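Aim 2, interim progress. The first record below pairs a target sequence with its structure tokens.
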Amino acid sequence: MASTTATQNAIAQHSANYGSIVTHHPKKQKGITNPLSHVPNPVAHYDTTISKPVRKYLGTYGLFPPEPDTYEIQKKRCLAQLRSKQTNIGKFIYLSQLRHANVHLFYRILTDHFTEITPLVYTPVVGEACQRWSEIYMQPEDKGNIANVLKNWPQEHVEITVVTDGSRILGLGDLGINGMGIPIGKLALYTGCAGIRPEGTLPLTIDLGTSNKAFREDPMYLGSRRDKVSPEEEMEFLDELMVALKDRWPDIVIQFEDWKNPFPSLQRYRNDYAMFNDDIQGTGAVIMGGMIGAVQQSGVAAKDHRAVFLGAGSAGVGVAQQIVDYFVHEGMTEDDAKKCFWLVDSKGLVTLDRGDKLADHKVYFARDDNNGQQFKSLDEVVDFVKPTIIMGLSTIGGAFTPEILQKMAKLNNRPIIFPLSNPVSKSECTFEEAIVNTDGRCLFASGSPFYPYEYKGKTYHPGQGNNMYVFPGIGLGTILCKAIKVTSGMIYASGEALPTMITEEEKERALLYAEITRIRDVSARVAVYVIRAAQKDNVDRLHSLRDMTDEQLEEWVIEKMYDPHKAIEDIEDELDSLAKDLAHTRSLSQDKKQLKL
């Protein structure tokens, strides 16, 4: 019955608030912790806006205040309680409890107050929540075999999971299982931004030990108190997990998040599963989308740009590779395109003759035209390269000094400044610093949110190159077209979609991304581009979508998106339909009796 399904969905969402912890233990069987595998109550049915007849239908009548609320009253009450909290972590805990108690109300408030709520459930506040996860965690844990416990997860139809091992959370380092806040927050955005149903999401944290000695010695730490497992052990464990996930949910989309070394798993699984890594691919796509707009507004052709990247880790290389693809689309050869990039790590400019062994992912961009010179600082590299673009993925707060920003302004009419590190304290510069030191001429996008800034009588608006512009749409598009894998073409298409959503008014304000308040429309457009790319790469399985025009496809995508405002209406409609069916059945029965007479 539909009501049974709704109950299962509610239980699954209750579980999803805290997620599952997959544990690797050298002396015990590998397993998964599902802290809420036997929740007794269908919490989604305790929404105070539900009418009395529906409460009776659901079996909840008399179990909470009798007079139905309106959503406006609910929202007013919740926002007052939220805003009464004195700290951001207090607000994070309150919102977690709200999602646990009333999932539809949580997502209604998230979608209606996106700019206020998003920073509290994801970056930057999720960073503090992860650091204190073992302190604020409020549920017991369980252990068992991976495949068996995945079978115990109450939701029969999981569409997407976010998987982390907590080894590289934002700019905070190895947080072990305290990183669980990341997949939970990420999946909240899949629902809020792209309308993926909350009961179809599964947050997973893999406990592979932690290199964080303080956590290993902390009696409150909930994870295993051992050092990180070897890469071979990690891959063996992931092999088992990936098979178990696909066996349990054959159509599942798997997103990897915040792994210290994300490249091996991406290369190992990308051709056999519908999986992607948001740190590498999502970051690359969203920054590429902003870069398309920046290059157009700069007035400088793609072939004439010179980009200095501070940060040569997985995210930095992923972004650079995605922009190389864009430059190739603009008519350059791949070899010429990659020569537009100079990467800087903790040892200075990445060159082939630097004398150290480069990580594999750095070799592609390593320079061989430095004539034996080694440049140790960002300032030296800027003087050598004379860049048109500086991009920060270093998590070094303030690395773009006033002197460097002023040099960029002297070198370029419209310097492109992208400090992309999270959280705000790790950002390479602030929006104010960028505006003041470039005399308001910079084209700016950041990873962290900044407020508008008034300079010389003009208000400037920052762009935020947040991955939420692309990863929800990538997931939604992959799910809807039933793609068997996530191709490079699908990732590129997600970034390519972003400039198409910028309005003329937004262009006049030099914004490189659409207003975040339109994120659901942006996600729908991204999903359409992703679906078209999947069709082009012949990895889609729902071929009926190929016959739709782009306009028809976008309308269809929007119709498929979960709308928390309609969730209670759907239950009301279900009861109304049942009542009509019952009345019709009774009418037929009476007619039969009269015929017999």
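The second target in this work package is listed in the same format:
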Amino acid sequence: MENSVTQDGIATVLSNQSLDSSSVRPDIVVQVVDLKPVGNRYTFNANDGKMKMKAMLPATLTSEIISGKIQNLGLIRLLDYTVNDIPGKSEEKYMLITKCEAVASALDSEIKAEIKASTGITLKPKQEFVAKSASQIINEQRGNAAPAARMAMTRRVHPLVSLNPYQGSWTIKVRVTNKGVMRTYNNARGEGCVFNVELTDEEGTQIQGTMFNAAARKFYDRFEMGKVYYISRGSLKLANKQFKTVQNDYEMTLNENSEVEEASNEEMFTPEIKFNFVPIDELGTYVNQKDLIDVIGVVQSVSPTMSIRRKNDNEMIPKRDITLADESKKTVVVSLWNDLATGIGQELLDMADNHPVIAIKSLKVGDFQGISLSTISRSNVVINPDSPEAKKLKSWYDAEGKETSMSAIGSGMSSSANNGSRSMYSDRVFLSHITSNPSLGEEKPVFFSTRAYVSFIKPDQTMWYRACKTCNKKVTEAIDSGYWCEGCQKKDQDCSLRYIMALKVSDSTGETWFSAFNDEAEKIIGCTADELNYLKSEEGEVNEFQTKLKEATWSSHLFRIGVSQQEYNSEKRQRITVRGVSPIDFAAETRLLLQDISKNKTSQ
């Protein structure tokens, strides 16, 4: 009996589409036919033996398909679904399934009506739908419910994951997890105003809502951070990747006719935070990109709070740096700003000796000191989260991680691709590719790998700066003695020197100038800036300083570089910055040459 579909199940689905949205729908068992992926979802034909209907499964069920719980020709029980028109084909419908469960694995063949007729086996819908009308059921449920719950029963709430642009009417229940400021604009259509909110439902799914002009003025004061709302009569469209701030294929637009009602006097919910973790050794590809990332790591160290002067308004804002490590044996510095620096940051400082695991959502990846992370206004920090990833990471750290030697992700990039930063053998170009394209890096930084010789290092350039030993930022001489750090807001008697130098590099196609910072410059010169400064100050027959620079020239390296544009005297110029340096791996270089030869033969 378990290998059975509900008799006339599709007809029941179609007849129930006009029921009040709050009605409890009958459970129906159908066969999955022609299961196939479409984007991040799966479509299939729901088959009851007599009729078929197009259907779509949400992305949340992808794992069950991959694991084999839901199979082609298998049976599923529909627990929650909606029926919508197919755009441009008003006579055709499709079913959007928001909740279902596997009943049986794949059958030998597709179920046909004549085959099922001989067995006479059906799984009937819930009995109350036979004996009572939908309105009777709702009235009984409302009568038995507490007053605070009756309002919620008048509508059927859709999970965000089920929404799509082709859907008809829907109602969502969401919490405002981020609210933007009201912005004004002036374009060819005239002046206007706009603001955005980030909305999260109980399952942790997020969507960005946008309101323009009259709708923006109507709803700006109504939406309050942290409150829960029922929203309906909005529209959806594909999200613009350039401006989207959450992980969702769609974005929502509300107009002045949309309905936004605060869910007061009801049981509230705290949205589950959904993370999409990026391992620390894979952060390289996100540097200076618009994508926000989530990270999880073990706290290695926590700095004191620093006060940083903001450039645009000269306001002093608090900042705190924490260093995280993960199983890739790489570390990264995360800068916490504002309330996160003084609140959770202080909590982390107090428990730093215990090396807690923290998960952080919505981080910006920058290139300060190679690769660094920074919180923004909507970042969320969870200490010791109750998740499989956190437990696995903590077990690894307690077993072996605490004794393992770690290296900073920004300290250099190896010639292999296994450290997440791009391989020195990907995006390989000659110097002429960069110098002959002066517009490279105009819109955003671009990254390449190249093999070149250091051909000249100017000995009379300013090769280093005095740096704070805590934060590595530039210090100035104090009035009495010692050095003052504006970042840490403190004075120290000593400082360190850190490289910031220009060097000329050459290959068979040309030459250009690279800018190299401390970690990369140390690999090129072969000593620290303090050591080179000592050699420069020494007197003797042999100038050890000049000798050291000569030893560094005409040596070949693999460089990972970033190309961007900077403005100087109202003129835009290319700036090429060294992101990583590696010695030549001649075996790998030989394999690369053989690949190029093979490609050339194929093209001929």
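Residues 586-603 form the longest helix (18 residues). This observation will shape the mutagenesis plan for the next reporting period.
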